[in-house]
Amino acid sequence: MNHQQSIDAVARRLYRFSRRDVAEIMEVLVEVWREELLSPEGNVHIRGLGNLYVQLQQIEASGLAKQLMEQMGQPGGMVTRSYFRFRPTRTLKRDLAARIRSGEFAE
So what's the pLDDT on residue 63? Predict the structure, then answer.
């Protein structure tokens, strides 16, 4: 489901709001979530779905990465690796498992 499909689906369920209203609300929501995820220890909990968060890890550069850093005039050393994480709720995991068992998802 892409952004426009999401707007259409929400607008159909909340028929008293126009698609333009729904789009504006979603834009603000994305902006708020983005700001939270960019903050240290940022975490977005979406009820019924799970948690979104960013995890940063400092690792020592080696091999090609280290060579490229030295060529660019950056002191070869540490590189920050970003992990974008989603941790689903137990309910979402359970519901997905039930659909898989029912054969709704082909493997």
Answer: 74
| Length of the chain in terms of residues written | 107
Strand partners, 101: none
Count CA within 13 A, CB hemisphere, residue 90: 0
Task: Render pLDDT for 26-84 as a digit per residue (tens, 0 to 9).
Answer: 999 999 999 999 998 999 999 999 999 999 988 777 777 777 777 777 776 777 889 99
Q: How many angstroms separate the first and last alpha carbons of the chain?
A: 20
DSSP class of residue 73 equals T
CA count, 13 A, side-chain hemisphere, 14: 13
By three-state DSSP, how is residue 47 classified?
coil
Please give the Cα distance from 59 to 68 (Å, whole number). 15
